Amino acid sequence: MAPTIDRPPIVVGVDLGNANCRFVAWQDPADHPILLEVGSVPAHPAVVARDQELGGWLIGHSALEEAYRDSVQVYRRLKQNVLQGNGDGQAVIQRLLRKLKFGFQADCAARVVSAVLSVPYSYSTQQRAALREAASLAGLPVVGLINEPEAAVLGYRIDEQLEDEAENVLVFNAGASQVTASVVRVAKQATYLDIELLSEAVARTEEGDCVGGDAMDERLYARFLEGRLQVPAWPADREGLPAGDLDPLQQERWLEHQARERLQEARHFLSGAVVHEFEVPWDGAHTGRLSRDDLERWAGFDAEIARAIQSAVRGARHRDRPEGFRDSDIDRVLIVGALNRSPFVSRMVDHFLHVEPREEGFEEVAIAAGAARCAAILTGRCEQIAFRPRETPAFGIRTGLETFDKVIPENAPPRFRARKVYTLPNRFARQWVLEVCQGFSRRFLEEMSLGRQVVPLEFPEGAGPGTRLEREIHVEMEVSGPEVLVQVLDQTRGIAQPVPQHYRFRTR
Fold this sequence. Notes:
Layout: E1 9-16, E2 20-25, E3 44-45, E4 48-51, E5 57-59, H1 61-65, E6 72-75, H2 78-81, H3 90-108, E7 111-119, H4 125-137, E8 142-147, H5 148-156, E9 166-174, E10 179-189, E11 192-202, H6 213-225, H7 248-269, E12 275-280, E13 283-291, H8 292-299, H9 302-315, E14 332-336, H10 343-346, H11 362-378, E15 394-399, E16 404-408, E17 417-427, E18 431-439, E19 449-456, E20 468-480, E21 483-490, E22 501-506
Parallel strand pairs: 1-7, 7-8, 9-14
Antiparallel strand pairs: 1-2, 2-3, 4-5, 4-6, 9-10, 10-11, 12-13, 15-16, 15-18, 17-20, 18-19, 20-21, 21-22
């Protein structure tokens, strides 16, 4: 038997996007002055296909190449759809991550021992648990999840530019499925770094559809079908096509796939050029041509993106700014996502101070790089900074007196029980309204409510109208799997044997 070679261990960050998935390994800055070479981080299409005819699974590029065939079942937008219970669910992401992990280990000649996955801020508790389980089944030892805005801050290394101070950062993330603007507060004290997400807004059309790279590609494709782009039309005679061995229906799908792919590549190249010319496989005599003017005229979402930015800024709340933020309160802007390389997207944040990436194209790998840095921090490989991502939901209560208190903080240890004592002065009140909320930051919104419960109140013997009581109500909360367990105990003086009330609230 050949001797077993123990490969060096590495920790990685994973950015599972709707368009691409990226793995980035942590590199110690003491050993690698250039922490990340953008060109060495491949973008693997986050596409999985199941070939019903031949059997087996296709991953990444091979899945895209066969996506137009009738016998191939294709899964796309995994981050957005699969974790919501569509398709084969976790099995699809599990196969994608396993394939990419093995390929990554082979390329690096190293063994992945720890991983941190980035997730959208809007992910629910169930979605986060499902992603964790899928990654674990794929052989990825997950040590934590991190919200994408937090990962962007770590990836751009904002903390290295702070000296025991705080800044408000606008994280502008434009990807394949949506464009989001998030306001985060970054505070540093000695080696401890705290990143708190204050608000987030998603760019949407008037019809409620998300704005992103996919929406832009759909608009460009519609203009191509209308003949409004300088791209050769499909040939009337299909016999000369390179995909001539396909049946007519598959040929139509092949043509659509090729057209969408060429337009998407052209849109990407227009981030650094005014005009881009490209060949089309269905017409060897002519080339397609797409200009920046075409992109802005037919596929622009300036108004929708501007509204999202303003909504995020105005919706941010902090104890220093309880009335909301203004543009002047934003200290800098981080740009992440492949779509951000488009000039008309960058124009939306021109009046803010930009943080330029250290290398062209870093916007696309910033989140994965931040997740890798988070993995190094959590595993003790990055000793110069202390940081804990807000992965675990925070739970709080809102009472009928319009007061609100957070009683279970982020990243509480398992089986952690939070206790809160409420002193409620009142005259002969017979009930108390308890509302349980959930969120992933210190700021809870109305839509995060898990439900309300009317708690009946007892009275001491002999108490009557006009009696003034100093209510002392003890509330104990515990997160147990998919539920929040709440116990309410009235220990007001004079009540002989208080009986605790127990309530259950389903987490989201």
